[in-house]
Amino acid sequence: MQATIDNLKHTFPEKLNTYHIQHTNELYLEIDPINIQEFCIHLQKDLEGTLVSLFANDERQLNGNFALYYVWAIRRSGFFVVLKTQLKPDNPVFQSITTPIYAANLYEREIKDLFGLIPEGHPDPRDLCFHGNWPQDLYPLRKDFDTFNQPTHTKTIDDFQRVAGEGVYEIPVGPVHAGIIEPGHFRFSVAGEPIINLEARLHYVHKGIEKLAEGLSIDKCLYLSERISGDETFANSLAYCHAIEKIAGIELSPRAAYTRLVFAELERLTSHLGDLAGICVDVAYGFAAYQFRMLRGWCYILVEELAHSRFLRNINTPGGVRQNFLHNKEKQIIDAIARIKKELNETVKILKTNALFIDRIENTGILTINAARDLNTVGPPGRASGLHFDLRKNFPYSNYNLLDFQIPKHLNGDVNCRINVKIEECYISMEIILKTLELMPQGETIRRIGNLDPYQSALGYSEAPRGENIHWVMTGENNTIYRYKIRTPSFCNWPALCWAVNGNIVPDFPLINKSFNLSYAGNDL
Questions:
Q1: Backbone dihedral region of 385: left (phi > 0), alpha (psi from -120 to 50 degrees) or beta?
Q2: Of the candidates 49, 55, 164, 242, which lies 20 to 30 Å from 437 by C-alpha distance?
Q3: Do 74 and 26 meet the contact criterion of CB atoms below 8 Å apart?
Q4: Is 503 exposed, middle or buried (0-12, 13-18, 19+ CB in 10 A)?
Q5: Cβ atoms of 235 and 463 closer than 8 Å
Q6: What pLDDT score does 128 carry?
Q7: Enclosing H/E stretch for 388
Q8: CA-to-CA distance for 331 and 460, rounded, in angstroms?
């Protein structure tokens, strides 16, 4: 980290206002708004940084200004650089960095919608959250927004990107879908058979979670974190607790850390088995689909018996876990894992010898490594495209640093590679669980947090089943939440899905979509 500080001081001797280190691996730099683009380009090109979050905070109560935070991960060195700049309320404009750093695109549009801060020079400044029907000059994440206000929606503006040309036509799909799928609208531009553009319009299930968090007690906000996205309950609550524990300056007991690790890998295993079942459904391979669904059912049964909740709720709490969930359960877990592994071996063998199945998934929905890098694609889709990173390895937490395991990496970036990554991660999760049970000592499972100082902040993170999960928490007075920023992996990966379908035919979209298996709720917040 010191080398990065020296580099920035040497490169920008007159432009770095202040800096300080928080929580060992968070370097905060304060700079003027006019220098944002220059610093960000340097972090990306010269320091190999990746923009993993970008958000605003209404700090007018504290210093009279709005603040922007640009969170960069220096993955090769295992620390974060957070650029902070302040904007005056009478001039709420900042330099857009989307043109040189495309990963900033959705973040800047979100900030414009929810805070009314304008990204000057943004190449696509359309609404992101509101679909053109929200009243002007009404910004929900400003502190003076009345949450009991029921604004009158204006007429919806159809501002989809258009592709013109002979033989080009549009296919609208959604937002209402068959079955119990959450709402999202997909606008395909098609020339003959191939898709030449796909635009996804989301935020139909926007719940205002970040606004709801404001003023909640630290304990109550935990319940909110568990309800961001149902199938990533544990990963989200873990990231939230991680941030609170860093602010409190406490270290988890070994048993609590290992307990979290077991449940995190069970959630990953359950999620991946469900994804594999869904992919098989979309290619009409019923036998394999039922096999994977059966295995996922076995995981749910195990989780229910261990935690009394199939969705892994009410396990995490700031300071550890609520009770000694795994006491005298080691043999039960080992036997269940052995049974799942045996059946998975047989199912995968059958799957990979089915020529028709392989023909459907090879070279379908290719996401190139350059596109994946530019979009900051995370999790299995990123690893399937050659991006070899994982928070469990690059920023280890909950004792992952004490375990020896490999991160899958494939290069072709197609549906086949995404399937292979998930299959390999199923086996890795089972190995991690078994190794954890060997290492787990007896002892306490929770340590008291106590009273936290107001206006302190920290990053919390976890490697969710879908990928890198970044949360940022700032405390308020009396152990409350001042600001809770959530960036789930789906927020990063929806643009990657839209990119991956280009050049494919429309009937392959469900298959490509399921290979990403992104969360609407986790994106819309």
A1: alpha
A2: 242
A3: no
A4: exposed
A5: yes
A6: 93
A7: none
A8: 32
Centre a 10 Å sphere on the Cβ of residue 2 and count the other Cβ atoms it contains: 8
Q: What is the dihedral of CA 35, 5, 470, 250, to 10 degrees?
A: -140
The answer for residues whose C-beta is within 8 angstroms of residue 199's C-beta and 6 or more apart is: 160, 161, 186, 187, 498
User: Are the beta carbons of 347 and 426 closer than 8 angstroms?
Assistant: no
Count of CB atoms within 10 A of residue 473's CB? 28
Buried b / exposed e along 268-294 (16+ C-beta atoms within 10 A): bbbbbbbbbbbbbbbbebeebbebbbe
What distance in Å separates the CA atoms of residue 184 and residue 92, rounded to the nearest whole number? 31
CB 50 within 8 A of CB 70: no
For 90, phi then psi, to 5°, come to -85, 0
Q: What is the token pair recorded at 6?
A: 């020296």
**pLDDT < 50 regions, the chain:** none
pLDDT computed for residue 32 by the predictor: 96
How far, CA to CA in Å, does 14 sit from each of 6, 32, 34, 123, 452? 13, 11, 13, 30, 35
CA 186 to chain centre: 21
Torsion on CA atoms 349, 355, 356, 357, rounded to nearest 10? 30
76, burial (CB in 10 Å: exposed 0-12, middle 13-18, buried 19+): exposed
Taking a C-beta distance cutoff of 8 angstroms, is the pair 67, 115 a contact?
A: no
Measure the N-to-C terminal CA separation of the chain; round to a whole number of Å. Answer: 33
Measured CA to CA, the distance from residue 450 to residue 492 in angstroms comes to 35
The whole-number pLDDT of residue 411 equals 95
The pLDDT value given to residue 245: 98
Task: Dump the DSSP string for 441-500.
Answer: PPS-SB----PPPTT-EEEEEEEETTEEEEEEEEE-TTSBEEEEEEE-HHHHHHHHHHHH
The Cα 102–Cα 165 span in angstroms is 26
Domains of the chain: 2-120 (3.30.460.80), 168-201 (no CATH), 209-443+450-524 (1.10.645.10)
Question: DSSP letter string over 93-107?
Answer: EEE--TTT-GGGHHH
d(CA 151, CA 387): 43
How far apart (Å, rounded) are the C-alpha atoms in residues 338 and 29? 49
| CA distance linking residue 159 with residue 162, whole number of Å | 9
Rg (CA), the chain: 23
Q: Assign 398 to helix, strand or coil.
A: coil
Is-above-0.85 flag for pTM? Answer: yes
